[in-house]
Amino acid sequence: MDFDLTDDQRLLQESMSKLLTARYGDFELRKQYGRQPDRFDRAIWAEYAEQGILGLNFAEDEGGFGGGPVETMIVMEEFGRALALEPYLTSIVLCGEILKAAGDSMRKEIIPAVVSGTKILALAQTERGARFDLHDVSLAARRDGEDYMLEGEKSVVIGGGAADAFIVSARTAGDRRDTDGITLFLVDAKAPGVSRRVYPTQDGQQAAEVSFGQVRVPATAVIGAAGDGLKLLQKGVDVAIAGLCAEAVGAMDALVKLTVEYMKTRKQFGVPIASFQALQHRTVDMLVMLEQARSMAVYAALMAEEPDETVRHQAIAAAKVQIGRSAKFIGQQATQLHGGIGMTMEYKGGHYFKRLTAIEQAFGDADHHLRALAAAGAAIAA
Questions:
Q1: Residues 360, 330: contact at Cβ < 8 Å?
Q2: In CATH, what class is 7-119?
Q3: Do the beta carbons of residue 114 and residue 92 sit within 8 Å?
Q4: Which residue, among 260, 256, 238, has the nearest Cα to 248 in the 3D structure?
C-alpha cells in the first residue's frame, strides 16, 4: 500500500511523540497515574485540551481542527506506544463520532465542553449476555409525556467512572435483538436514578456497571432520529475499531523493540541470547506480524469514512482480525523471550500484552469478526 503522511500529519506525529514521551517516558509515572481515582491524570487531559488534541476530530466551527481517521490513527498509535491511560478513544473518537449526528443545539452545548476537556463522555452499550452484538439491547426507553423514562443496566462501560455523561443505547420499540427500534440518548451521569459501580480492568484502565432506574430524559437528549440509533452506533464503533487498530500497532511496535533490546542484554551460556539463530527467527516472525498489522491499521483508517456501510464493515472487520492475530502472536512471543520477567507487574512488557489482549476483545475478537466476514461471503486468509 502506497501511503505517506502529509507535512501537517508528520508534525502531529512528532508533537504527540514528544508529549507522551515527556509524560509516560518513565514507566513509574504511568503507575502513579493509575493510582489516581479516575486511573488517569486529569492534568494530562487538560494538557491535551490546551494543545488541541481533544478537538482534533471535530469541525472547525465547533472549536475543532477538522481532522479525520488518519489523524486519529496517528494519535492512537502514539497512545499505544506510550501505554497512555486517558479515555481519548471512548470520549473523543467513539462518542465524538456519534455526537456528529446530534442536533445543532446539542452539539453547540456539548462539543465545546468536550473539546475543552471539561466534559468526558462514555458509551453505555454492552449488556449482560449480549456478547459483541450491538443490536442486542434490552434497556427500555418509554415515552412519558414529552420525556423518556430509561430503565435497565449497562455493563463494562469503559471509562464509565470518570464520565460526566453517557451516550446510552436504549430500546424504544421492538424486541431485544431487533435491529430496528434502538435509540441513542445523551444522559447526565449525575441525573437522578443513575448509579454506577466502578472497578479496574486488567489493562490498567477502569470500567463501570451503570444502572438506570427510572431516569427521566427530555426528547432533546435523543441523538439522531428515534429508533434509528443502530446505524449511528455501528459507524461510531467502526471508527473506534480503526483507532484501536492503530493503538495496537503502537503497542506492538514498542513491545517488539523492548524484546529485542532485552535479548541484547540477557545472557545465557556467556553470550547474549540475541546471538542464538533460533531466537532471531522468532523476532523476525514478530516483525512480519507487526508489519501485517500496520498495513491493516492504515487500511482501516482509510476505510473508516467509507459511505457504503457493507464495504466499511467488512474492511474494519478484516483489519480487526489481523490485529487480533498479530497482537496474540507478538504478545506471546515477547513474554516467552523475556522469560520470568515478562510476567511481572513491575516490568512494562507484560502491561503491553495486557493492553493488547484488551484491544483484541474490544468490540469483537478475531473469531467474531472472522465469522461476520464468512457470513458476508468476504474473502480473507484463514
A1: no
A2: mainly alpha
A3: yes
A4: 256
The total of other beta-carbon atoms located within 10 Å of residue 51's CB is 13
Q: Is the pTM of this model over 0.90?
A: yes
* CATH number assigned to the domain covering 230-376: 1.20.140.10
Longest Cα–Cα distance in the chain: 79
β 121-124/165-171 pair status: parallel
- Rounded to a whole number of angstroms, the CA Rg of the chain reads 21
Q: Name the residue ranges covered by the structural domains of the chain.
A: 7-119, 122-227, 230-376
Pairwise CA distance, residues 362 & 158, whole Å? 10
Lowest mean pLDDT among 37-46, 134-143, 267-276, 310-319: 267-276
Q: What is the pLDDT of residues 207-262, one digit of tens each?
A: 999 999 999 999 999 999 999 999 999 999 999 999 999 999 999 999 999 999 98
Q: What is the mean pLDDT of the chain?
A: 93
Architecture of domain 122-227: Beta Barrel (2.40)
Cell of 66: 477538522
What pLDDT, on the 0 to 100 scale, is given for residue 382? 46
Q: What is the Cα–Cα distance from 328 to 348, expressed in whole angstroms? A: 17
88 contacts 49 by C-beta, under 8 angstroms: no
